[in-house]
Amino acid sequence: MRKERVSQNRRRFLKTAVQAGVCLAVPEFIPGTALGKSGSVAPSERIILGAIGIGNRGRYVLGCFLREPDLRCIAVCDVRGDNRKRAKDQVDAVNGDKQCATYIDMRELLARDDIDAVLIATGPNWHATAATMAAKAGKDVYCEKPCTKNIAQSLQLANVFHRTARVFQAGTQRRSLPNFAYAIELARTGKLGKLQTLHAHPGGLGTKMSGWLPAEPERPRDQVDWDMYLGPAAWRPYTSKLMNAFHFEKGGGLVGGGCLEWGSHCVDLCQLANDADDTAPVEYEPVNGQLHARYANGVKLVMRNDGWLPLGSCPVRFEGETGWVETGDDAEFAASSQSLLLRRGTKIPGYPADFHVRDFLDCVKTRALTRANADAACWAHIACHAANIALFLDRKVKYDPKKNEFIGDEQANRLRSEALREPWRI
Amino acid sequence: MITKKQYSLSCVFLIILAVSAGTFAQDRSADPKEQDLIAVLKSDAPKGEKAITCKKLAIYGTRESIPSLALLLADKELASWARIAIEAIPGPASDIALRNALGKVEGRLLVGVINSIAVRRDVQAVDTLVQKLDDSNASVASAAAVALGHVSGEKAAKALTKSLANAPAGVRSAVAEGCILCAERFLADDRTAEAVKLYDTVRKADVPDQRHLEAIRGAILARQSAGLPLLIEQLRSEDKKRLGIGLRTARELPGRDVTEALAVELNRLNPDRRPLLLLALADRSDSAVLPTVHKAAQSGPEDLRITAINILIRLGDVSCVPILLEAVTEADAKLEQAATETLIRLPGKDVDADLLARLPQARGKLKQVLIELAGQRQISKALPAVVSSLRDTDVGIRGAAVRTISIIGQDQQAADLVKLLQKTKNSGERAGIRKALLAISGRCGAKCIPHLKPLTESRDSELHIIGLRALAIVGGSDALAAVKSAIESAESPAQDEAVRILSNWPSNWPEDSKAGQALLMLATSAKKMPHQVLGLRGYLQYIRGNKKLSNEQKVAKVKDLLAHIKRPEEKRQAIAVLAEAPSASALELLTTLAEEPAVVEEAYSGMVRIAGQDIRGVSKDQRRKVLQTVADKSKNDRTRQRARKTLSGIR
């Protein structure tokens, strides 16, 4: 049901674009004929995918990959036996065979020379470590968010992907959706006047999931490989209560994870609106349950902890001197003037990842930077982590994006990184 | 992706978990004292407590904590927690502790210690790390190699270079990584020659191909312009991965001379690869690439042309306009689509001016395209020329003019469109004009009403209906009067349409208060049954949405109306209005309606909804009685459940 709806959305989006020739806010698509997309795809031209950490979210994104004609998935990996089986069944059903290999240890999957790219949806505890391991193994990476656990990991992620020249796409798929892209285009092209304030709604700024809970009897390795689940996280005994990989160690496991859960989307969109994919705000201050940040160019970023606006989840609002626009996951808009919305293009609600996956696959072929490339992801995550640190310390902090350090603030600086459990490194 | 509900549940779960887990963040009411934390480490406290203490020491610890933390480096369960603190605490004490641990721990724990030394870039650990390159444990040797890369320096580079030649196969990849890390550091320190030497060494070594690729990239970028031959070698390589590294470095290597050389290379490359290199060139943010993109957009293979045209969206300027217009008018649908999109998105007021200047002389397809672009780009100065095109003999041009007017037209253009509409009998053309009229009416409001008059007075029922629909969008008293007049005097089907429009009067709802009277009139005295039904529905909708009415007033209006409602369908709608007007009178009326078998369940559902609320004039006992009645009598499982649940909630 879900799969069909998203596919139809995508077809409608592209079809409308073709028929109407309307101006789409989504960055231009690479012409298919230049990339072997016209007609059938020769097996030699297919991108071969391995999928790592395939729980609920992973299987959704994997489904987006499997819909692409120039992709074939041949292996899945998960520390949980039930996830492995479900993911394998999903892949086999599309491939029409029973050949999809399964792995508990991602290093075995990464060692395969026949895999070009990997989808990583392990949960935030593993994302940066797994992504950099994959890059060093010569794989291009689509990595779910939050991509990093702290500021140091964000920088390391960007460095490794520069060094290895692998393609990286953070799973911040709203960058590839027309309504968000349109609002961003309004902000970046001066249609709102000089930007003043950006509103992001991360929600749940104080949530967290970490700690050391009482031990429970460990399960057989083929059901749960606890050591691999913990991965780079500091050791603690097995407990089923920490088995929600979607949240485990989110935000570094030390301070609020909620900011990273949604902030990696909505703060990321604000970053793009402010043309700040290569920097982050320089000041962060908790104010009445909100987090107020300020960029060096004077633009203010407000992260709110309360509920969504009526435009769906993950809303953003961009305010300039002469106008404002607001949009969210319902793909509806509110704006200071209807004239701002004349060219808003096709409505695609429900934040599907299909377009983002397609952008990644195109970039795998062209070697171009993706919309949510490692640098962009790095800085959006730094903004979220710095906000988390300000919230944790419950005071204003100042950040120097050139030196990547908090100014005169040793406590904040110590929170920039955290040792990885042996033997893992980035 | 998670739903909002799942998200909320997750948050609740996390809060519960945080409380039970005693996480660090939870008990951060005041900065802890270091001595207290050290005491925990020295005590017999459970390991979980010591673990969280290590995290606290990462922020609040000093060299005083290091000895206690260092003792944990040999503890398999706590070593990683201890390193969190040791890595974070500044000063030599941490480095010394880690260095000392090199000789005390082994296996994975040793790897962890080495990794922490790498993070801290401890130069004094280099000698020991060099020794560890020969460790029989490949994980240890690999960790040492990468750590040497992070620490960097002449001594590290020399040891790594030496090891690259004779390290076991399982370690060589890490040694190469160490070399590349060293090279990066040299480059950052302006020691280019040493960096190049290291990159070249790795390029020629027997290491995994990914390390080769990294070395090739580094070798190209470190050489700067002198790296061009190596870059071009990759672009021409039969190996896809080398082509990939060529395409990436083609984006990264700076310099105008590089841009020009790559532009030359574009024509020499295999045609299949040209779009890829053109995309890479476009990503260089160098204006020198524009002539190359222009040329590629003008002629040659279709895929290259389309790629070039797409690129012009972000690189192009007014100089691209002739090229793009040429492409639009070619008989190639893909080119036309790509060029049109680019022309729409090409930034700049000068582009608008250029397109505008071409419009008066344009003919045929070009004129049609320019008119469409005027709309899509919202070039309001083009309006006079576009309006005059409404009289063009070419139906395609007239259609484009209508579409553009629908975007940029003002109320005066409504008059132009009405005239055109009166002239044409073509159904397609009429549909286009109708759409444009509705768009302008929505945008310009009441100013359009005089221009729409010829339509509302037309004997052509189709035109009459278009006029009425446009009025419905405008809203307001004048528009309402016109619609009422049509109901009273027009003939079918315009009369039917007027009734439908009135029953859905949305324009300035509920400010168009007179719509209520008109709807009530329709509901109670229309001659045709369908008109009565539409009137009833519209009136109920009016009551429901009218914020000026109190709940009691709404109930009173519904009660009056009930005498005219014959069908259960409208009674259900009336019940829905009552259920949203919580009051004693609504509850009473719903109880009465519950005696009618056709609507009993809807009435019960509404009663549960109201009885669940604390309402003035309705006691808790009365509410309980209502809910008990529903719980006993309803035949709907869900309604019964809701009644019971609500009942149990009244205390």
Helix count of chain B equals: 39
What distance separates the N and C termini of chain A?
39 Å
Q: Over all CA atoms, what is the radius of gyration of chain B?
A: 40 Å
Low-confidence stretches of chain A: 1-38
Shape of chain B: flat
Q: Give the total of beta strands of chain B.
A: 0
The gist of it:
The complex is a heterodimer of chains A (426) and B (651). With 426 residues, chain A is α/β, with parallel strands linked by helices. Chain A has 12 helices and 15 strands.
Task: Tell me what you see in this structure.
- The complex is a heterodimer of chains A (426) and B (651).
- Chain A has 426 residues and is α/β, with parallel strands linked by helices.
- Chain A folds into three domains: 2-174, NAD(P)-binding Rossmann-like Domain (Rossmann fold, 3-Layer(aba) Sandwich); 176-207 and 253-346 and 380-414, Dihydrodipicolinate Reductase, domain 2; 210-243, no CATH class.
- In chain A, 35% of the residues lie in helices and 15% in strands.
- Chain A is built from twelve helices and 15 strands.
- Chain A has helices spanning 2-20, 56-66, 81-95, 106-110, 124-136, 151-164, 178-188, 226-230, 258-273, 354-366, 374-393, 410-414; strands spanning 47-52, 71-77, 101-103, 117-120, 140-143, 168-170, 195-200, 283-287, 290-294, 300-303, 316-320, 324-327, 333-335, 397-400, 405-406.
- In chain A, the strands form two sheets. Chain A has a nine-stranded mixed beta sheet.
- In chain A, helix 2 (56-66) packs parallel to helix 3 (81-95), helix 5 (124-136) packs parallel to helix 6 (151-164) and helix 9 crosses helix 11.
- The longest helix of chain A is centred in the last third of the chain and has 20 residues, at 374-393.
- Chain A is globular, with a radius of gyration of 21 Å.
- Chain A starts with a helix and ends in a 12-residue tail after the last helix.
- Chain B has 651 residues and is mostly helical.
- In chain B, helix 13 (209-223) runs parallel beside helix 15.
- The longest helix of chain B is centred in the N-terminal third of the chain and has 20 residues, at 169-188.
- The model of chain B is unreliable at 1-28 (pLDDT under 50).
- At the A-B interface, helix 12 of A face helix 1, helix 3, helix 5, helix 7 and helix 9 of B.
